[in-house]
């Protein structure tokens, strides 16, 4: 239990304070009176409830790192994905509540949202343009709407940076992403955060193999961080977007989902790098 000592200020006149420091009254016959401050009794209030985070796509490459980061921060974590429980044989995975379901089915999604205070969506995929729009756009839009109706406070969507010409080659992918972003900023005006990383590197688990993408991802990040002006070049500029570590994405997404003063809106790759270097609150 936390103890909060509050002070109640009672005004013994209906006077309002002017800029000059005097108390003015609408009754010209009254003399300015000071106000008295009285000590209030100590009250006891229960601690705030544990924050419950739902990670959409929590058993994927990015989602698994988000789950682990959230657990390390002391949050209660659940995940909803098509395959359900993660195949990772790691201690943290046993502390996640795993739900199996499809974001295109609203009933399963609403059940998973019970008691949830914040959501992080890592859902996305590639394929035909129609499939990419459905998985990157429609599925996330369904999740955003369901979360809004359930009264979820904050929603973080891990989207993708623009890559110039690649946007046209993968039109379904980017059109879906941007449609989901628009829905999020509409439904969660003050609690919607969009992360736009470029290439995300880290150790990927493919079956029993671990692929260390950081071997070339980390050097590229250091080099391209210094080449930020090149991002402004017409057509090819977005190709110089630096990659970002998956742990940085996870750290910033969890902070954005739980920190009430984290500003809503879009965070580009440079913002992700900057926030990841700050100490967590």
Automatic annotation (TrEMBL):
SUPFAM superfamilies to which the protein is assigned, alphabetical: NAD(P)-binding Rossmann-fold domains
Residues of the NAD(P)-binding domain: 57-200
InterPro entries in the record: ComplexI_NDUFA9_subunit, NAD(P)-bd_dom, NAD(P)-bd_dom_sf
PANTHER family recorded: MIOREX COMPLEX COMPONENT 2, NADH-UBIQUINONE OXIDOREDUCTASE 39 KDA SUBUNIT-RELATED
Identification of the protein by name: NAD(P)-binding domain-containing protein
Organism: Eruca vesicaria subsp. sativa (Garden rocket)
